Amino acid sequence: MLTYIQINAAKPREKAWNLSDSQGLYLVIQPNGSKLWRFNYRFLDKQKKLHLGGWPTTSLADARVRRDEAKKKIAEGIDPALEKKRARIAAKYAAANTFEAVAEEWLVKCERDGLAPVTVDKIRWLLAKAYPVIGSIPIAQITPHEALAVLRKVEATGAFESARRMRSVLSRVFRYGVATVRCDKDVAADLRGAIASPKVKHFAAITKPSEVGALLRAIDGYSGHKVTVMALRLSPHVLLRPGELRQAEWADIDFEEAIWFIPAERMKMRRPHRVPLSRQVIDMLQELHEHTHWWKYLFPCLGKPRKPMSENAVNQGLRNLGYTSDQMTAHGFRAMAATLLNERGEWNPDAIERQLAHVDTNQVRRAYARGEYWDERVQMMQSWSDYLDELRDGGKILRPTFPTARRAV
Description:
Layout: H1 4-9, E1 17-20, E2 25-29, E3 35-43, E4 46-55, H2 60-75, H3 80-95, H4 99-112, H5 117-135, H6 144-155, H7 160-179, H8 209-220, H9 226-238, H10 242-246, E5 253-254, E6 259-262, E7 273-276, H11 279-292, E8 300-301, E9 304-308, H12 313-320, H13 332-344, H14 349-355, H15 363-368, H16 374-393
Antiparallel strand pairs: 1-2, 2-3, 3-4, 5-6, 6-7, 8-9
Helix pairs in contact: 4-5, 4-7, 5-6, 5-7, 6-7, 8-16, 9-11, 9-12, 14-16
């Protein structure tokens, strides 16, 4: 049987040579000086060899323990070399199926499914906070406690809404892992209620008519960049979400029919949407057309015109006008319109909801309420632009009648 002194004194030769221990265990001394433990055994009448590690990382005592464990497996009818190979393959498979690897694969799928780039970026931002905690762990091995640790880390910063969204994102990644046979269950599903609920905070919006008039007058007097000015002027009239507005393309505008078409992939609810264009909106679009018609986007980014206007451009314009984030936001123009249109009581609430591109949360009602209220929306949007002009001018204007035929531009 070998001793530590013998092993330590063994020197490399021109060719590999062996030092025998006992019961099939021996040490191979390589020409480069490395010393490797091997175990020879027979399994199903075949001579086989098992690698047990290198010395001194694997000591003599450790090598003998591993040899004895291998002999026990052989007695149980298990080939230790084959089992080791399978374990190595499983470890390699697990490494390729870490939470981060599965999450990145899911993100690619989201992009192919047409999820808005800004939404993908927000999800990627959330996942980047999860990776340091669970990113390197095989997704099938992640426990609810480890997923909760991710949420607690975000919650500790006071970002309760981000923590809530993080749980939803984690859940979607786990569900994708289940669907692609990388894990057995969504461990984030059981974490509902485990973190503090965020207080609902609505987008700040001006809804008092006199204050709306003052805002419109301030916008008309804004001396910022032309693209930002036009985005501010159009925002109150078209009832679009800020992302839908800034990503608008000239190909979406039909001046002849006076309709703004928005494809499903650029809508939050992934449904195509139409905006009837009032005479005021058409005039503004024609004015904007003179400045940006050679670019793809109505509102190209300053300095990078092949990209749409910055996500924060309209909000920054409002700040430059002196309105704080607690007073008015880009998204607040929708709340302004929804409030005043409903208060005036002239239009079917469903028509207003359709124009806001809201989806009825009642599935049964949504299944039967398929009308688009288009004719009413055409009249409503012209009336709304007239009303905004009235508020801006601080007085009343004569309301036009609405002929059946649309004015061609």
